[in-house]
Amino acid sequence: MKTMHKEHTLTKNQQIIFDLIDKSPEPMKAYSILFNVQKKGIKAPLQVYRALDKLVEIGKIHKIESRNAFIACQNSSCQVAKATAFSICEMCEKVTEISSAGLSKYLTNFKDKEGMKYSKYNLEFFGLCKKCRT
Amino acid sequence: MKTMHKEHTLTKNQQIIFDLIDKSPEPMKAYSILFNVQKKGIKAPLQVYRALDKLVEIGKIHKIESRNAFIACQNSSCQVAKATAFSICEMCEKVTEISSAGLSKYLTNFKDKEGMKYSKYNLEFFGLCKKCRT
DNA sequence: TACATAGTGTTATATTATAACAATTTAAAT
DNA sequence: ATTTAAATTGTTATAATATAACACTATGTA
């Protein structure tokens, strides 16, 4: 078997939208995506949101909740985990996905006061990126 | 000195909106807040959003980003920290603020690949609450 | 083939949030 | 007490984000 993950063959709309997000250096907002794919025949918000929903579901992209924006996954394990962490620069809005085994181990093993553990989480760190700090 | 924190005396609108959120057993959405305070003379979305912005800024409430909803702070240290963590039940939408010294210590000491540390973060855990698990 | 599931295209609308501007209140500093 | 700056308010309008509903089409699989 080549892989453990189901191969999600993307549909036309999903592929168009994924390609756009994937080559963007920064998170993209839904209506900016819409504007950019109109020449490819995707004309309505719902077409964009449906593709975004699916891409998020299968882990190809993530939503940056505090920014209502979408970024391509940098980390193959997200296809199964739904456990995400990002650093966000409050000056230039640069977003970087964090893939730290230590962090994810700590968070998946974290127990709340009732002893409950969580395999799904989203963590957003805020600060100034290297460039903006200098 | 009684306290280290500046006392933010809330204005009328801020107090009305804080009281409403504080006595709500669940996170409240902006337009639900608006509906509930109209009898008190707050008539426009902007009046609500302005109060919400201020209350978030001074740490009296927090925004649950994945739900676009607001919850009163359960944890006095938020007035200074802006470092928040929540558990969210995906079934009943119950939200609980997590205050764990261990977790906050781990996260504020966490270093990314470039050695960068972050004092501001927001973490949302997802799962099923005690009630919904049974 | 036939059936179920997922995806599409479309119109309309719901929900969340901010812009701009004039007036008023508050805090603090003379 | 008076002046001044900063914050808050009230208001109208509008921007930005997201979903409902419905008819139709494509795809995978039994």
Keywords summarizing the entry:
DNA-binding; disordered N terminus; 5 strands; 134 residues; 37% helix; homodimer; globular; alpha+beta; Arc Repressor Mutant, subunit A; two-stranded antiparallel sheet
Number of structural units classed as domains of chain A? 1
* CATH third-tier fold name of chain A: Arc Repressor Mutant, subunit A
The main β sheet of chain A shows up as: 3 strands, mixed
List unreliable stretches of 5+ residues of chain A. Answer: 1-6
CATH superfamily membership of chain A, which one?
A: Winged helix-like DNA-binding domain superfamily/Winged helix DNA-binding domain
**Alpha plus pi helix count of chain A:** 6
* First-residue to last-residue Cα separation of chain A: 49 Å
Explain what this protein looks like in three dimensions.
The structure is a homodimer of 134-residue chains. With 134 residues, the first copy, chain A, is α+β, with helices and mostly antiparallel strands. Chain A is 37% helix and 19% strand. In chain A, the strands form 2 sheets. In chain A, strands 4-3-5 form a 3-stranded mixed β-sheet, covered by helices on one side. The first copy, chain A, has a two-stranded antiparallel sheet with strand order 1-2. The radius of gyration of chain A is 16 Å and the shape is globular. In chain A, strand 1 (61-64) and strand 2 form a beta hairpin. The first copy, chain A, contains 6 helices and 5 strands. The first copy, chain A, has one domain (12-133): Arc Repressor Mutant, subunit A (Orthogonal Bundle), CATH 1.10.10.10. Strand 5 of chain A pairs antiparallel with strand 5 (120-127) of chain B. The first copy, chain A, binds a DNA duplex (30 and 30 nucleotides) through helix 1 and helix 3.
